[in-house]
């Protein structure tokens, strides 16, 4: 994750520098806030493209449209409306066309792969509670402007893999205190929080969390 953070912030700074140089050649009035907004929007869109995430890509494009429209003034909509256009287009295309891959977790010399049944659900502008039992080894969830609570049964089969796409939403995972949790998430203006005592990477993880948190959060709590 440290290497990913270096790459992310490296791209942000390079785009910011390029935007500040281009400002001198474009006959429009830009301020630093507009430049930073456009750079952030481009980073979100590029991140979605690189990771083949339809939802994140369209969300980023909505942000790009809003940022560009500040000085192009081509579309009679505000920043928030254009952002929602991107979210809704991305969500619609995601539900129609996205195919979820088989995810693997690799750490040091060990790789864990689960080929059990896959559980999928979406939480869109709402709240939901789900209980993970013995057969819920692979769980895929999209949370868009909503809240999701996941409760993991202590007797559930291990390891459990959660693949979460969180955009302007929150996911809280309630996990037995004796479990070990591993994460492989990307946070863009978001956060992933796990109790320190549950992150022993030398041990085989009982719960593996993957995915993205864009303007949202993924929180693990002990029970």
How would you portray this structure in words?
The strands form three sheets. The chain has a five-stranded parallel β-sheet with strand order 3-5-7-11-9, with no helix packed on it. A five-stranded parallel β-sheet has the order 4-6-8-12-10, with no helix packed on it. It is built from four helices and twelve strands. The chain has 223 residues and is of the alpha/beta class. Strand 1 and strand 2 (110-113) form a beta hairpin. Residues 100-115 have low confidence and may be disordered. It has two domains: 2-97, no CATH class; 107-222, no CATH class. This is Cell wall-active antibiotics response LiaF-like C-terminal domain-containing protein. It comes from Ligilactobacillus agilis.
Distance between the termini: 27 Å
Using the CA coordinates, give the radius of gyration. 19 Å
Give the beta-strand count: 12
- Mean pLDDT value: 75
Assembly category: single chain
The main β sheet shows up as: 5 strands, parallel
List low-pLDDT spans: 100-115
Order of helices and strands: HHHHEEEEEEEEEEEE
Name the shape in a single word.
elongated
| Spatial strand arrangement across the major sheet | 3-5-7-11-9
**Number of H/I helices:** 4
Structural class: alpha/beta
Give helix % range: 25-40%
Number of domains: 2
Strand content: 25-35%
Protein name: Cell wall-active antibiotics response LiaF-like C-terminal domain-containing protein
